[in-house]
Amino acid sequence: MKISITNLASDAVEDDLRTLFELFGKVSSVEIRKERGMGIVDMPSRGAAKEAMSGLDGQTLLGHEIEVKEAMGKGGSNRGKATRRRRRR
Question: What is the pLDDT of residues 49-81, one digit of tens each?
């Protein structure tokens, strides 16, 4: 499950996030987008990811209160759902 972390400090590095999220379980990957002040953490266990989100949301990392939530795909709220188009007659 991919998790979005926003309001990261400009000096935050991938190891900071990995260490923090590994307290809740295995971390597959970590990516920081410094220009946007955000990071993405991927955890294979959905249960561990949900625990991490509830346990870390609003916590302080390097002087910044981080917001932690499930990352939304480019498709937004329709992510993972099948869509059907009407055929033209």
Answer: 999 999 999 999 999 999 999 998 765 444 444
Domains and CATH numbers, the chain: 2-72 (3.30.70.330)
Instruction: Count the Cβ atoms, other than its own, within 10 Å of residue 33.
Output: 11
Least Cα distance to 35 among 60, 68, 10, 71 occurs for 10
pTM for the model stands at 0.80
Q: Are strands 29-33 and 64-65 parallel, antiparallel or unpaired?
A: unpaired
CB proximity list for 23: less than 8 A, separation 6 or greater: 52, 55
Q: Tell me the torsion sign for CA atoms 66, 49, 42, 46.
A: negative
**12: helix, strand or coil:** coil
| H helix intervals, the chain | 14-21, 46-56
